[in-house]
Amino acid sequence: MTWLARMILHKEDLARRHISDTYAWHRVVWDCFPGRPDANRDFLLRLDWVNDCCRVYVLSMTEPIRPSWCLPEAWGLKGVAPSFLQHSIYGFDLLANPTRMVHVFDANGQRRKNGRRLALLHEDEQRRWLTAKAEQHGFRLEENAPLGIDEIGTLPFRRKQSTGTHIGVRFRGMLRVIDRKLFTEAFHCGIGTAKAFGFGMLLLQPIS
């Protein structure tokens, strides 16, 4: 069983919790999984702003519990049965961080082990990115359905002693499953980079 939790928090709640960037969300969501101080992250999260409220979605194979700082009326939890992922066509909503890897070279012209990622800022690049990710993750975009691409802006984060930003892009459309195993892995593990910062969760609505 997979679990999907939803929390609705107002700006005043965020101020009390000192939540001011996407990595701060990553830290506080761990409160949904107490007693696991050394565990690796095995959940996805997504942040949707609606006026002065933030809807926080958490998808996990481990059942989350309501943190003490989240009011009961602001908490929702439902199980996602394996049969949910057995449909052929879904409507989808994906908040992602489309990027491309750029190689970095040292003073001697040798390529360094770790490159850096550049955000894809143009809609045609973002569309190609999603098409490639779809093929990689066992589905394809339905050509006869419109694809919505909306940039939600620059989202800051602070991690240890460094700061940075991510570009968030919201994709909405229809997909067809072509490889069930890869598709199921994408649902559980997410798509693209910056998953710890609230990107990559694939929200689905079965069509057929």
TrEMBL record:
Cited CDD domains? Cas6_I-E (cd09727)
Q: Which SMART domains does the protein's record reference?
A: CRISPR_assoc (SM01101)
Top-level taxon of the source organism? Bacteria
Q: What is this protein called?
A: Type I-E CRISPR-associated protein Cas6/Cse3/CasE
Q: Which organism is it from?
A: Desulfobulbus oralis
Give the lineage.
Answer: Bacteria, Pseudomonadati, Thermodesulfobacteriota, Desulfobulbia, Desulfobulbales
